[in-house]
Write a structure and sequence with these properties.
The chain is built from one helix and seven strands. The chain is α+β, with helices and mostly antiparallel strands. The strands form two sheets. A four-stranded antiparallel sheet has the order 1-2-3-4, with no helix packed on it. A three-stranded antiparallel sheet has the order 5-6-7, with no helix packed on it. A hairpin with a 2-residue loop joins strand 6 (116-123) and strand 7.
Length: 132
């Protein structure tokens, strides 16, 4: 049985193609990704209030939901953070409207065995509905 030696030209072309594709991928990722990580500064106008402890996935451990509303007029930092029982963030819901804790409803509305979180927000004459 004769063993075929790799052709140096094939190895060179494969290496060049691999290097080129990795370079293009990294270039596109860093230049076209709309999300940027920025460190957030503490905001004196930010109101944080723990909303609920709920077992949303029915695993026997409660998830913790935190609501934050920004009262500063130049920015809108309204969000709900979902933490698991170990304190890790498992989800985040952002909105431009003020979140009222009493207008958050929980239940298994889709029938998949996991509770959904329905958030209703208001702005002027509009009602906004967010499902997490």
């Amino acid at each position: 049985m004769k063993v075929r030696r790799p052709n140096p030209l094939e190895i060179g072309l494969f290496s060049l193609a691999l290097l080129l594709s990795v370079s293009i991928t990294l270039f596109l990722y860093f230049n076209l990704t709309p999300w940027k990580l920025e460190s957030a500064q503490s905001n004196p106008g930010l109101i944080r209030r723990p909303a609920e402890f709920r077992d949303l996935n029915h695993d026997g451990f409660s998830e913790f939901l935190e609501i934050a509303n920004n009262n500063v007029s130049n920015g809108s930092t309204h969000y709900v953070l979902f933490y698991n029982h170990e304190g890790a963030v498992i989800d985040q819901c952002n909105t431009r409207e003020f979140i009222v804790p009493e207008q958050i409803f929980y239940g298994d509305y889709t029938g998949d065995g996991y509770d959904e979180c329905l958030i209703f927000t208001f702005k002027q004459d509009s009602v906004f509905y967010i499902c997490v």
